[in-house]
Each structure stands twice: as structure tokens, then as C-alpha cells.
Amino acid sequence: MRHIIACRICGKPKVAYLPYIKTCGAKRCKLEYRHRFYRFTEERKKRASALAKERGYGLWMKGRTTSDRHKEVHRKRWTGASNPRWKGGVPRSLTHRNWLAAHPENSRHYSRIRKSIKRGARGKYRLGEWLALKRAYLFTCPACARTEPEIKLTVDHIVPISRGGSNLIENIQPLCEGCNARKWARTQRFDASLIVAKFKNTIAA
User: Fold this and answer.
1) Distance (Å, rounded) from C-alpha 29 to C-alpha 117?
2) Burial level of 169, CB count in 10 A (0-12/13-18/19+)?
3) pLDDT tens-place string over residues 39-88
4) How far apart are CA 184 and CA 24, in angstroms?
5) What sections of 82-167 are H helices per DSSP?
6) What is d(CA 42, CA 39) in angstroms, rounded to the nearest whole number?
7) Worst-scoring range by mean pLDDT, 101-105, 130-134, 197-201?
8) Cβ(102)–Cβ(152) below 8 Å
């Protein structure tokens, strides 16, 4: 069930699927909320400690030890090939590096999404949508009409995030690195006239 909440820090509306979400998700709002509402003062710590002693929390385990048989059963269950996370003896760090090397496009996509969320952008696009958008533009930059692999297409926000633009696919166009840098923080949508003219000339030739 969806809930429309207002961020307790900046007041920005957010669609939340859990009723106890209190912030919009931006890093600065989460840190400020944690600082305001979850900071334990010395007085609060003493009160919580006194209440725990009064109710007897932790006393049921006092003086008990784990048996050797239980330790052995637990060791056999969670070590080696019996562990549900077993990957053939290959360390997780190595498998993660291998996956990143085999899927560079996925790695770049997740990095872009993470950066946009940290900047407070609204929404996010999927990797399949970005690849489909590049195919729709014939893997060509609409500003200079150069094509991959001569250039590298990058994600450009038509309305920049710094000016309130979203991170949805409708607000994205593929530009080469040079054209993206020259556009800077302007709001500008490039049409596909250069792409059409280039491919008409190619077919005619």
C-alpha cells in the first residue's frame, strides 16, 4: 500500500510503501533526522539502563554457556559447502570484481543512479530504458551527429537535476562527452534532424 508522506526535515512529498518512513530519502535529510530524533543523551541512556534492570532484560542468559555439541553442529552447518552462501571457495570480493568486469554497463548504470539519488533527483530509469533510448537515436549524438564507437554516449538530463529535473527516462537524452560538457547546466533538448540528415546522405551515397 502506498502512502504519501511529507519529509520531516525539508517537507518534500514522497511516495512510501511503508508507513513508518519519515524522510524523503536524501542523505542530508536522513542524517539530520537521525541527529534530531535518535540521538541518545546521557540522561536518556541512564533512563533506558534503569528500565532494563527493572524489567530484568538479559538476566535469563546470565551464567549460561554454549555446549560443545551445539558449537560443532553450528560449525558444520555454516562452514564450507553446507553454507547457503557457498560459492565454490571463491571469495565474494573476487566474484564481485569478476561480475563488474563482465558487466561494465551495469556497473556504470548503478553508479549513475546512486549519484543522482545523492543529489536529490526524483525517480530513476532502468538500464533497459537507457539502451532502448540509445537504439532509438541510432547510437548517434543528436548535437554533433557522431556515432559510437567514434564517441561515447553519456546520460544528459534535459532539465538538469540542479534545476529540479527528474531522473526519469523522459528527461534524458544521449549526448557525447564533449557536447554534454558544452551544454553544462542549460535546459535544452536536441532534435534528431542532424541524425536523419546524416543517414539520408549515407543511404543516398
Assistant:
1) 12
2) middle
3) 777 888 888 888 888 887 777 667 778 889 999 999 888 888 888 878 77
4) 27
5) 92-102, 104-118, 127-136
6) 10
7) 197-201
8) no
- The whole-angstrom separation of Cα 157 and Cα 186 is 9
Residue 205 reports pLDDT greater than 60 = no
86: Cβ contacts below 8 Å, ≥ 6 apart: 80
Q: What is the dihedral sign for C-alpha 135, 138, 141, 147?
A: positive
Percent of the chain at pLDDT > 70 equals 97
Q: Using the structure block, give the residue that is written with the C-alpha cell 528527461.
A: 171
Query: Nearest-CA neighbor of 7 among 46, 37, 50?
Result: 37
* Cα gap 87→147, rounded to integer Å: 41
CB atoms within 10 A of CB 107: 13
Q: Is 151 in contact with 176 (CB distance < 8 Å)? A: yes
Q: What is the pLDDT of residue 169?
A: 93
C-alpha cell at 146: 557522431
- 14 forms beta bridges with 5
Provide DSSP, 41-104.
-HHHHHHHHHHHHHHTTTGGGTT----HHHHHHHHHHHSGGGSTT--TT--HHHHHHHHHHH-H
Q: How far apart are CA 127 and CA 84, in angstroms?
A: 30
pLDDT 10s digits, 106-141: 988 999 999 998 888 889 999 999 999 999 999 999
